[in-house]
């Protein structure tokens, strides 16, 4: 709820989720509490299931900076952990390159 890069990539992640429909599951692990997440989602659209209070799980995964995107295969094995949706600069403007994440996900299907 307070991680600016996390919030900035939400639209791209929502678009990637829509692209794959029900072929891929998306979840959000957060250290925030449920009341904070509910209040946040009243003003921001983030079409993922949210699992709150996940400090221990994130620590177990070695995640201590955000955003992180964790890609699992169909057997639940972690294949890749990346930062935020990759940024490209075109004509002096920053854009999120959703195609890189789409390619990773298509490999996993």
Can you characterise this structure?
This protein is α+β, with helices and mostly antiparallel strands and 109 residues long. The protein has five helices and six strands. It has helices spanning 4-8, 10-20, 34-41, 55-60, 98-108, and strands at 27-29, 49-51, 69-72, 78-82, 87-90, 93-96. It has a two-stranded parallel ribbon with strand order 1-2. The longest helix is centred in the first third of the chain and has 11 residues, at 10-20. It is globular. It starts with a helix and ends with a helix. The mean pLDDT is 92.
Write the layout of secondary structure elements.
Elements: H1 4-8, H2 10-20, E1 27-29, H3 34-41, E2 49-51, H4 55-60, E3 69-72, E4 78-82, E5 87-90, E6 93-96, H5 98-108
Parallel strand pairs: 1-2
Antiparallel strand pairs: 3-4, 5-6
Task: Tell me what portion of residues adopts beta-strand conformation.
Answer: 15-25%
H/E topology pattern: HHEHEHEEEEH
Give the % helix: 25-40%
Radius of gyration using CA atoms only: 14 Å
3D shape: globular
By DSSP (H or I, 4+ residues per run), the number of helices equals 5
């Amino acid at each position: 709820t307070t991680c600016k890069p996390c919030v900035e990539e939400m639209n791209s992640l929502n678009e990637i989720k829509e692209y794959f429909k029900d072929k891929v599951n998306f979840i959000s692990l957060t250290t925030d509490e449920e009341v904070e997440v509910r209040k946040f989602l009243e003003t921001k659209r983030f079409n993922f299931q949210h699992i709150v209070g996940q400090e221990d799980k994130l620590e177990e995964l070695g995640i201590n900076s955000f955003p992180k995107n964790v890609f699992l295969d169909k057997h639940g094995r972690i294949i890749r952990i990346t930062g935020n949706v990759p940024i490209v600069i075109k004509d002096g403007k920053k854009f999120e390159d959703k195609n890189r994440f789409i390619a990773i996900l298509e490999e996993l299907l």
